[in-house]
Amino acid sequence: xxxxxxxxxxxxxxxxxxxxxxxxxxxxxxxxxxxxxxxxxxxxxxxxxxxxxxxxxxxxxxxxx
Amino acid sequence: xxxxxxxxxxxxxxxxxxxxxxxxxxxxxxxxxxxxxxxxxxxxxxxxxxxxxxxxxxxxxxxxxxxxxxxxxxxxxxxxxxxxxxxxxxxxxxxxxxxxxxxxxxxxxxxxxxxxxxxxxxxxxxxxxxxxxxxxxxxxxxxxxxxxxxxxxxxxxxxxxxxxxxxxxxxxxxxxxxxxxxxxxxxxxxxxxxxxxxxxxxxxxxxxxxxxxxxxxxxxxxxxxxxxxxxxxxxxxxxxxxxxxxxxxxxxxxxxxxxxxxxxxxxxxxxxxxxxxxxxxxxxxxxxxxxxxxxxxxxxxxxxxxxxxxxxxxxxxxxxxxxxxxxxxxxxxxxxxxxxxxxxxxxxxxxxxxxxxxxxxxxxxxxxxxxxxxxxxxxxxxxxxxxxxxxxxxxxxxxxxxxxxxxxxxxxxxxxxxxxxxxxxxxxxxxxxxxxxxxxxxxxxxxxxxxxxxxxxxxxxxxxxxxxxxxxxxxxxxxxxxxxxxxxxxxxxxxxx
Lengths: 65, 497
Description:
Radius of gyration of chain B: 31 Å
Oligomer: heterodimer
Strand content of chain B: under 5%
Radius of gyration of chain A: 31 Å
Shape of chain B: globular
Number of domains of chain B: 3
Structural class of chain B: mainly alpha
């Protein structure tokens, strides 16, 4: 039972690798890289909103006579 | 039923080889490690499967593969020298029948390891070969691991699908190779391209590594325990979070040791004292005999020359009250139990030197690649970990080889061939300068460039002098203008002159 299961498992895994090698286009030729590298663009940091026009809050000292 | 399954798998594999001839190379590795002809009962056992696939692999490469990568490397040269030496020692062997029996499979392993690097010129090919090797090993390791967990282990009693205790199915051999494969398994869990990392893939790889760890416990081979210790140390070197790694290892040891069978701990205790242990004393006697034998036969006695040994074994021991009991045993025809002495006895000093050279160069080159690309990120991030995994596997093999006669086991020659191909791949595609004794030195290149520039300058001067001489000889004034006019193309003419 253990023998059969182990044999089956290893052959299934091997079959999967053989299938992948059969269909992959990069097996016989190394893919040529473009040589370009791209800088990862992260979401920009949100600027803290200023009190006043943007938020409608009264800026300190605005109520001065 | 098992026969039909194995035949079906092999036939499918060979048929797909006609579409992608590289699969013949993988098929040979499969046949060599799993030995389906040994597992089957009737049909496959009567066909020379290994020879057929071997020829198919070489023919497939010769007919359809790219030959521009078929340059011979120095290590392939050393392997060729070993092959020729083995052929010579078999020819003049002391026991020709026994030598021929071993030569029958050794030559294939050596020829294939010389040939294999020529076929491995892309990353996927290198990885594919390693994956097939690991899965082939898994067919034995999973059986051993599962039976050990079920309590079916024991020295020489763990049944690994086949009844005879030889080849990869021999207990100490499979222990050494199972542990030597763990670094490669851990590499595949993280960097494989053919089996992309996923939760299922990782569970499989870690379960396989665990099964490999159980093999030395199941077979109760002391070699395996030493290999595990070395592997733990080497992986500590490669680990990024070392304290976490140490904590995990300590946890595994603390949790695992109480569950080990008593027979296993008793057997491991015999590592400490060698004299009372018959196996260790016999080994020492065989090694002593081999040194004497090599001094009389410097070119070796051919394969299996150990069958001629007659040993006097010192098995003296001291009783608890301090009395020394002198025991002398006699034995004959004992195997080397050490790959280095195996090479020394069978292939002489030259064979041992070549054997050490091919292995040490492999370990050294992998270290160079590992160090050079350690901080590499992006598409080449896999290079350094693969070099480290191959090197660790190789070092574990070299330790295991001190206790088992596995100098010619094909598995290690597949690893050597992969190392050669990987080294060349890195130098071809990854292109960062790694120190190499065979690369031209900068001073030599600069001297050649300087010489070429001087030659070009001298040539230009000579041409200028010739042109000046021609100018002096050529007609001047109106005559020259007429000459010029005649050589110019005229508009409107059909011939353009």
